[in-house]
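G., the chain you wanted modeled:
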Amino acid sequence: MKIFCDTSVLVARSVAAHPHHDRATVALKPIISGKDKGYISTHGAAEFYATLTGLPLNPRIHPRDAQLTLQTSILPHFQMVELGTEEYLEAIERVSSRGLASGMIYDALHLIAAERAGVEQILTFDVQHFSLVADEQSRPLIRAP
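Predicted structure as tokens:
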């Protein structure tokens, strides 16, 4: 199965203290084991780093540790989907035509990457927001772990 993972799922799996850590770990097991094929967007890799280094943890996650986590725990198991100018403009059109603002653009970028990859499932802990920017074909694929 081809599965796209949102940053929320990757962060939850990577931070043991996260309230959704266990759910994310179980959901990603088939990808980590190689049974399923995982996908993330290039934007998602940057968002993962930004989120890890910005979490209000004590002690904070050091930037180098966040980069190493991405390099060793995420990238070996996920194919990155690159988005170009056309996809960014499509994301802006998608959110603006629905009257959505602010960070919804980032959910739209994730969804467009998932659509381009032709995935069969989209995992996120933000199902409601993803559903707002999903097209008719991708909406049924969205679920929380």
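The longest strand covers residues 37-41.

Shout if anything looks off.
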